[in-house]
Amino acid sequence: MPSREPGASRFADLEPLLARVQKPVQYVGGELNSTVKDWHCGGFGPDGAERTVRWALMYPDAYEVGLPNQGVMILYEVLNERPDALAERTYAVWPDLEALLRSADVPQLTVDGHRAVGGFDLFGVSFSTELGYTNFLTALDLAGIPLHAAERGDGDPVVVVGGHASFNPEPIADFVDAVVVGDGEEAVLRLTDLVGAWKAQGRPGGRAELLLRIARDGVAYVPGLYEVDYLPDGRIRRVAPRAGASGIPWRVAKHTVTDLHAWPYPKRPLVPLAETVHERMSVEIFRGCTRGCRFCQAGMITRPVRERSITGIGQMVEAGLAATGFEEVGLLSLSSADHSEIGEITKGLADRYEGAQVGLSLPSTRVDAFNIDLANELTRNGRRSGLTFAPEGGSERIRKVINKTVTEDDLIATVAAAYAAGWRQVKLYFMCGLPTETDSDVLQIASLAARVIETGRAVSGRRDIRCTVSIGGFVPKPHTPFQWAGQLGAEATDARLRLLREAIRADRRYGSSIGFRYHDGQPGIVEGLLSRGDRRVGAVIERVWRDGGRFDGWSEHFSYERWMRCATEVFADSSVSVDWFTTRERSQSEVLPWDHIDSGLDREWLWEDWQAALAEEQVDDCRWSPCFDCGVCPQLGTAIEVGPTGRTLLPLTPR
Ligand code: SF4
Asked: How many angstroms does the Cα of residue 110 sit away from the middle of ligand 1?
């Protein structure tokens, strides 16, 4: 009978179940560069007290999506480098294994040591999207951790969440103990210090004392120590520290890693066992973006821009390739072609790996930052995939509203260069439902795509030119200028998408060369509810989960009907509803559920930028124009860190 001692491997319990599930390899672990440390790696103090702090880290989606996630991979390595800490990973289990685990009474396990998640000190969950919330509840339940934070005891892990979705943690406030806002590297080490000290002191005051220490430290927001008062019409009156929770901040500030060079992670990237969504070695070449696209939460909450130098990037690429054997390097950021040394970096890497079967890719390229030299460097080793650009809005007018400073002529010039250089396929991303949008703005996408095909045929002299239009519903996000905007309803979104599809199909000259991919409006409404909801939405998430909701990011598992039915039941006798949280425009004076989470952005500046959007005014990027006082740098004592450094890519270290 395998031991059920905390820290014991439960693989012997899991293994017999794997023959009866899909993709069992995703649960076995043992990847190249994975780590399994001794459960007592930190040793014991002279008083016999534990000196090890144990983290179970989760990406709340399937292995194939979670394994390549840079955030979890970085924290996994940063924590395991500490002699007194250990970190293991866990991902969402598919429904087939969930059922078997329940019937065999086997808990949620890590993939590294197959240890029960419930036995760790901290359970850290990284949310890139809100659609992972139901999987999070499944993991808590399978781990034997009470769903509600208020019902947890001293023996339960401290449940800590992070990731972009945590900039409005209120919808899941009832289920989490602490929220790390912003960059995680320094925060997880600070939390490890706090938990380690509390354990070494013999756990004084129990869980309550530990959470109070965490809140007072400011390293994380502890929702349980704050109360929310509401106005009769449903709006929030205020969010404030509870009586007795003295010394905790009214607003909790985000963490910003100021010197990326000090954090050259991941050094030894994990090499997946099963097929994953990204099969490449990724290096983050800079963090943050100040292009100022008003719909883009990532660009707003990760300010300011902090570049990694060409030398640092070169060292990380070399070390990562040596440690993994990957054949593709992804140069990651929110807009990689904006790196001040991108030309030198791509040329230097293409020179260095020419003939070595190592491909380079830039996951995100802005139309106005793209150039053919860059594209040729990227494809020098013969790997040429399609090009993807994101104009986002179909008309010049709507692009001014969203501050996407790309003109139609910019786009046409860029695709002309690409088609002339031999590309045959271009993908264009758009959104539907943007503030002030009309049918005409969306229909202009059809004429834009036709002009792309016309241009491609003209410059290449070929007819096998293709352009794919990919479009989805716009979801207003917290900490952006559009946080006050009303969201377009699902039916209205679908009607506008139908108009566009019909316009493209009706184009006898170019329609057959234009692909059309779209996400209908329904998932966007659920994402909107979870993005801008408050604590009252927690009951909806729990009801959906109890009703079988899982993997909401997967169309084959997502059920709009279930979400709307559960929300209607939960909000039945209240003054709020799904529409209230999604399609309703907010006033400047309304207290927003996330106003006590300090992203560094000045609220007045966000409101002014919202007004500028309505006036179709554009704002330039503070990397290339004077600071426009968004508030981040002075408030957080940071500054933008961009090159060029004038350094060069060091030659390969001879092996
Ligand atoms: S404070 Fe100024 S320099 Fe800093 S990110 Fe905002 S606009 Fe840019």
From this structure: 41
pLDDT tens track for 575-619: 999 999 999 999 999 999 999 999 999 999 999 999 999 999 999
* Percent of residues, the chain, with pLDDT higher than 70: 95
User: Ligand 1: does its nearest atom lie under 6 Å from the Cβ of 632?
Assistant: yes
The tens digit of pLDDT for each residue in 424-433 reads 999 999 999 9
> Based on the domain organization, do 46 and 156 belong to the same domain?
yes
Domain assignment present for residue 313? The answer is: yes
Tokens of 473: 């519903």
Q: How confident is the model at residue 382 (pLDDT cuts 50, 70, 90)?
A: low
Q: What is the pLDDT of residue 370?
A: 65
637 pLDDT tier (thresholds 50, 70, 90): confident
Ligand 1, atom 5, residue with closest C-alpha: 304
Q: 56 and 116 share a domain? A: yes
Which helix (H) or strand (E) segment holds residue 23: the answer is none
CA 305–ligand 1 middle distance (angstroms): 9
pLDDT of residue 655: 47
- The pLDDT tens digits of the residues spanning 255-290 come to 999 999 999 999 999 999 988 988 899 999 999 999
Residues 159 and 292 placed together within one structural domain of the fold: no
pLDDT in tens, 171-227: 999 999 999 999 999 999 999 999 999 999 999 999 999 999 999 999 999 999 999
What's the rounded Cα separation, in Å, for the pair 514 and 495? 20
Report which protein residue has its CA nearest ligand 1's atom 4: 633
| Calpha distance 59→124 (Å, rounded) | 9
Task: Decide whether any atom of ligand 1 lies within 6 Å of the 605 Cβ.
Answer: no
What CATH number should be reported for the domain holding residue 162?
A: 3.40.50.280
In this structure, what token pair is assigned to residue 337? Answer: 């072609």
Q: CA-based Rg of the chain, rounded to a whole angstrom? A: 25
DSSP three-state, residue 38: coil
- CATH code of the domain containing 628: 3.30.750.210
Of the chain, the percentage scoring pLDDT greater than 90 comes to: 84
363 sits in the region (left: phi over 0; alpha: psi -120 to 50; else beta) called: alpha
Report the residue among 291, 303, 602 best suited for mutation to probe ligand 1: largest number of ligand atoms under 8 A from its CB: 303
Candidate of 254, 293, 338, 629 to mutate for ligand 1, largest count of ligand atoms within 8 Å of Cβ: 629
Shared-domain flag, residues 143 and 288: no
Residues 121 and 177 in one domain: yes
**From residue 498, how far is each of 7, 444, 492, 495 by CA, in Å?**
54, 14, 10, 5
- Ligand 1 midpoint to CA 627 (Å): 5
Q: Are residues 191 and 326 in the same domain?
A: no
Nearest CA to 52 out of 86, 9, 6 is that of: 86
Domain extent at residue 181:
11-21+36-213
Task: Tell whether 283 is covered by a domain.
Answer: yes
In angstroms, rounded to a whole number, what is the distance separating the alpha carbons of residues 248 and 222?
9
Q: Is 303 in the pocket of ligand 1 (CB under 6 A)?
A: yes
Atom 3 of ligand 1: nearest residue by CA position: 627
Contact 640 CB / ligand 1 (< 6 Å)? yes
Write the residue with the smallest CA distance to atom 2 of ligand 1: 627
463 located within any domain: no
